Amino acid sequence: MNDFRNADGTTARTVGVRDVAALAGVSRQTVSRVLNAHPDVAADTKVRVERAMAELGYRMNNAARALGTRRSRTLGVLASDALQYGPSRSIAAIEASARAAGYWVSAAFADSGDANAVAAAVDHLAAQGVEGIVVVAPHARTLRTLEGLSVGIPVLTLHSAGQGTTGLSVDQAAGARLAVAALAEAGHVRIAHLAGPADWLEAESRADGYAAELIARGLPAGPVIAGDWSARSGHDAVPEILAAGVTAVFAANDQMALGLLGGLHEAGVAVPADISVIGFDDVPDAAYYWPRLTTVRQDFEELARRAVAALTAPVDAQPSDLEPVSPVLVVRDSVAAPPADRA
């Protein structure tokens, strides 16, 4: 029920299902069916009820609805790291996908290094009556914490690089292999990898994919240089990359690739004439780097759609599509054949 307010701000009375039913000329049961999206409601009746709700300013009480129907039409999202592009983009995509499915999202944030904080955040979301929880879990330690919890509602992880029994992700290793394959097919033999932080599951999978594609093509192992996802770490890696004598670099994300491009320019090294560069993620700005960055695109919208579909499916439905989402190579201007004297 909802409080009415007088012009002077004082409480007049509350409005509830009974008021909506009276104004719409239907029973309270019919109003309840409309609120719960029951299929057996005539279209014109649904319109009358919705107009009455709007006229009266009725707002559904989700907590009360959850008690009565065991359906809150709300999903929980727990993020242990929402600052990087991938996790932040996924959170926004989950909210949009949930809304399209008629659901709301309740979010909580916790330090992935604090197991108690992660557990408390999961408990908090469950106490809100959410029907399922999406955990944006890019770190192995978050997965370890989740494995020790008994939540009682479905829990699905994203950005866990396919690890765990309920993980949904873009195929990171396949994306890395696409990048290395593109460089190899352009004629590069000496290829370096600018890697993400060691405690990130996706960084580990991209490094694995890089190594696997080199082996599959009979190419020598290249130098792996540690980065931290930031453009600064890409910029700082330039001396080591130049000292290694490579002709191409696969950067584990576009921000590091951006820093790398800037550092190479400052060093008088031309991209792609002297060194080719490929990134990962396809951030919106990648098409406007100089040169325009060839990169691997992740479909975060599809990832979110599958996550929401899995958590909102009927209990007796067939398992939702939890297969890894395939990445796509986006070809732009940062890759060319190696210099003839260094091929």
From TrEMBL:
InterPro entries: HTH_LacI, LacI/GalR-like_sensor, Lambda_DNA-bd_dom_sf, Peripla_BP_I. Signal peptide: none annotated. Keywords: DNA-binding, Transcription, Transcription regulation. GO terms for molecular function: DNA-binding transcription factor activity; transcription cis-regulatory region binding. The keyword Transcription applies. Residues 15-69 form the HTH lacI-type domain. Gene3D superfamilies: 3.40.50.2300, lambda repressor-like DNA-binding domains. This is DNA-binding LacI/PurR family transcriptional regulator. The lineage of its organism: Bacteria, Bacillati, Actinomycetota, Actinomycetes, Micrococcales.
